[in-house]
Amino acid sequence: MKALLLIDIQTGFCPGGNLPVPGGDEIVPAANELIDSGKYDLIIASQDWHPPGHGSFASSHPGKKPFEIGMLSGKPQMMWPDHCVQNSEDAGFHPDLHLTSVDFIQQKGQNPAVDSYSAFRDNDQAALTGLAAYLRSQDVTELDLCGLATDYCVKFSALDAVEMLPGVTVRFIEDASRGIDPAGVKSAIDEMRARGVAVISSKDALA
Q: Which residue range or ranges hold the Isochorismatase-like domain (predicted)?
């Protein structure tokens, strides 16, 4: 079983959203080509789904500004702009994404006391989303992933996939992803490679 995991291709992470990734909307055509290719038995999309006043929001910490480091549940935390609040337009998937072909949506980031970059578990690694168990139940043996943002949610999802799905081949589709910081993207790709994630292009995935 071959699966495609589309990570957080949401309005909030695209230009015009509350936490835009540079060029985030540019990946939608590549993502749709992958979705429509017939190469995948299973297509999953993760969705950042924060309650109002989430603890990772700078607005929840008086005196803190977005992109400063603060504290959340006793641990250092990047303070983000309010984004992907449940049931808001910002939390919706990009309107051009071929969502009708997605088999399963995994929501994350619902606990206000901890952030959740990975589609598999919260950042403190104490609470699982259930995605790993779902993929195991579907007998997935190959997992390709892409989305937003390479240096945060994509990277942590890829690393967790390697750790939590032993025996599954994990591949990162570079051109169907975008990151926030160029240096962070390079570091993320290096770290993924070092942990056994193959770095490929959408052309490779479609071959």
A: 3-203
